[in-house]
Write a structure and sequence with these properties.
Helices cover 80% and strands 0% of the residues. It is globular and about 50 Å long. It has one domain. The chain is mainly alpha-helical. It contains nine helices and no strands. α1 crosses α2, α6 runs antiparallel to α7 and α6 packs antiparallel against α9.
Length: 209
């Protein structure tokens, strides 16, 4: 996949997760600093965890801070009173936007994580690829929820990590047969669609009583 398309994908994922983190901060009535930090952590947290697992130090976020700066900028925009009022007063708009942003970020970062694992290590096996892809996809959201004092989304909401795992499997299979570009687009799309369908139809894994 051309580097410009990778950059665009990562940019879309960064913006999506930054919005998701900032909206969670608004829900908890945090100040502008809290909103910026939660947006930043949600956007880059998964990538930092991924790089540490793969032995990339310092993590790419610190070598190329453009994504971190974008995440902070987007979060501050969400904090602007006009946006804040809409998101905090209109529950349906809030829920829909949070679902869409979180789903898009999850799908994109799952396949970006797989690509990073494939690039960095020649010995990448299926387990490593799936693990790194899922960690990249859900890591920022877990950090967001922990910092906000919530039970991590992946343990209670419909199926979240499961959508990432299925999308990762599609990405890896397609990579072997159709190449990188088709694999990344398919894997991301499968993850996003499954996540949205799960939320709409209330699909979930069995819960403890």
């Amino acid at each position: 996949m051309p580097q410009i398309l990778i950059f665009i994908l990562e940019l879309v994922g960064t913006v999506s997760f930054a919005v998701s983190g900032a909206m969670t901060a608004l829900k908890h009535k945090m100040d502008v600093f809290g909103v910026a930090i939660l947006g930043l952590v949600t956007a880059v947290g998964g990538g930092v965890i991924r790089d540490l697992i793969l032995g990339v130090t310092p993590p790419a976020t610190f070598e190329h801070p453009v994504y971190a700066l974008i995440a902070v900028g987007v979060s501050i925009i969400i904090f602007i009173p006009a946006f804040r009022r809409i998101l905090t007063k209109q529950q349906k708009i809030y829920d829909t936007m949070l679902l869409l942003m979180d789903s898009v970020g999850l799908g994109i970062f799952t396949v970006v994580g797989i690509r990073a694992a494939w690039e960095i290590t020649d010995s990448a096996n299926v387990f490593l690829l799936i693990f790194v892809g899922v960690i990249t996809g859900v890591g920022g959201g877990v950090l967001r929820d922990v910092l906000a004092g919530d039970t991590p989304y992946i343990f209670i909401k419909h199926f979240y990590a499961t959508a990432s795992i299925i999308g990762a499997v599609f990405c890896i299979v397609f990579w072997h047969y159709f190449g990188e570009t088709a694999a990344m687009i398919t894997g991301a799309a499968v993850t996003v669609v499954l996540r949205i369908l799960a939320a709409h139809f209330k699909w979930s894994l069995p819960h403890a009583e």
